[in-house]
Amino acid sequence: MNRIIGLMKQYNISPVKRLGQNFLTDENMINKLKEAINPMPGDYIIEIGPGLGSLTQVLAGNSSVLYCIEIDTKLYHVINERFGHIPGFISGNFDVLKLNSKEPLPGYQEEYKVKITGNLPYYITTPIIMKFLEEDFKFDSMYFMMQKEVADRITGKPGTKEYGSLTVAVNYYCEARNVLNVPPHSFCPQPNVHSVFLELKKRPVPAVDVKDKDFFFQVVRGAFNQRRKTLVNALSNYPSLNINKEELQSVLESMGLDVNIRGERLDVDQFADLSNRLFKE
User: Fold this and answer.
1) Contacts of 110 (CB under 8 A, 6+ apart)
2) Average pLDDT of every residue of the chain
3) In the beta sheet, which residues pair with residue 195?
């Protein structure tokens, strides 16, 4: 019997649909995830939603600290029973979105390299990723299992339907890499979608230099808020920007761009250039 299936029976665990629980059961895939994360002494690993410990079992004891955050109280007790005796294992029973990024992590030391990983519930993948990015959380890399559709949006190229504000936001902070495609039969229960294990490597400095980060992201959100419209119409109709069409047309022409271009055609560098030209001190 598969180890994770056996644990489900041993602890009388049924996946909770409202929490988006799909337990990774494929041992070959689990070992490949471990290779990608490459846990070692000096690492401080945060695992979000460890569940029954599919990934935890290959991470525990290999890093200086493994901090598991599990919202499900029943599963929280299971992972503590399974791994609580291992040096460096720490756990918390709460919603990771409520993690206070201003407070020191338990057991953290300044020399540690922080890695964040998890088999994320698909409905909450983007909020979790953006929490760690927007709150300037100190980390080296993130490794997340996610719905292939979300991974495609993060790694999308300008001009494609996948490319959008999420692409620009994540790539502003990180370099994204598709590590592994994971089929539905690797999970219990099987999801209705394919999954991807994605690496997000934190950039030493953001991908582009902008005069005002908040304004830059407002421009990006405005550009994709009505993505079928031209960039001029989309941004001039975006309430928080207060930019008129004539100014936008003039700036686009100065950048050598067609005034009828859509936002989805601009790459990150062009969005930075555009926001810097539009920003007023």
Assistant:
1) none
2) 94
3) 147, 182
Note whether 97 and 162 are same-domain residues: yes
Inter-CA distances, 255 with 158, 213, 259, 261, 272, Å: 17, 20, 10, 12, 12
Within-domain flag for 73 = yes
Q: Which residue has the tokens 């990015």?
A: 133
pLDDT digits (tens, 9 = 90+) for 246-256: 999 999 999 99
End-of-domain residue from the set 173, 202, 231: 202
Q: Which amino acid is at 129?
A: I
Q: What is the DSSP letter of 103?
A: S
144 and 245 fall within a common domain: no
For residue 189, cis peptide bond before it (omega within 30 degrees of 0): yes
d(CA 62, CA 40): 5
- pLDDT average, residue stretch 38-46: 98
- 18 within a domain of the structure (yes/no): yes
CB burial class (10 A; 0-12, 13-18, 19+) of residue 274? buried
Query: Is 273 within a domain?
Result: yes
- The domain total for the chain is 2
To 10 degrees, the CA torsion angle through 93, 95, 98, 102?
Answer: 50
Its domain, for residue 52, covers: 3-202
Q: Give the end of a domain, one of 172, 202, 232.
A: 202
Q: Tokens standing for 19? A: 């929490």
